[in-house]
Amino acid sequence: MKKIIPLLVVITFIACNTEKAREKVEEFRLEKQKTTINSVLDAWHKAAADADFDAYFSKMTDDAIFIGTDATENWQNKEFKEFSKPYFDKGKAWSFTALERNIFISAYGDIAWFDEMLDTQMELCRGSGVLKKEGDTWKISHYVLSIAIPNDNVKEIVKLKKENDSIVKSQL
Q: Which InterPro entries match (predicted)?
């Protein structure tokens, strides 16, 4: 019995340290994935600012969806490419710079979602989306862009968009 107790203490110590080591490895892996995802999103925004059509769309899945600020903008990837191409061809697409970003990764490590505050030509906007891991590469699968409107200005914005919104609603 005297030999068993020290052995149990040693086994408990090893087990606790092994669990701590596993947690540190997992934490490191998640931070590395978040850094990679940040790089993908930053490169995607930079490709738009540089009007680099191929680089921009290479960061998106083939079945990606882009939801823009206009009520009619719910683009499948193919349609979004067709809509965007003239802007890229003119050498001026759009310029978004992330001021803040939060990234979350699924337990399986193959899906991530994020939200970001953006500095844009429309002033502050919010972006949110989903990335999917294809092989070893993270790609944007779904993106939603919205204009940040201060709560104090909502009533005047509603008045400005009421007529257009009624047209869109009648078409839905």
A: NTF2-like_dom_sf, SnoaL-like
Q: How far is CA 92 from each of CA 15, 52, 57, 76, rounded to the nearest angstrom? A: 57, 9, 15, 22
172 vs 168: CA distance, rounded Å:
6
Per residue in 53-67, pLDDT (tens digit) is 999 999 999 999 999
Domain residue limits, the chain: 4-171
Of 21, 16, 110, nearest to 61 (Cα)? 110
- Whether the Cβ atoms of residue 93 and residue 49 lie closer than 8 Å to each other: yes
pLDDT tens, residue by residue, 107-137: 999 999 999 999 999 999 999 999 999 999 9
pTM above 0.70, yes or no: yes
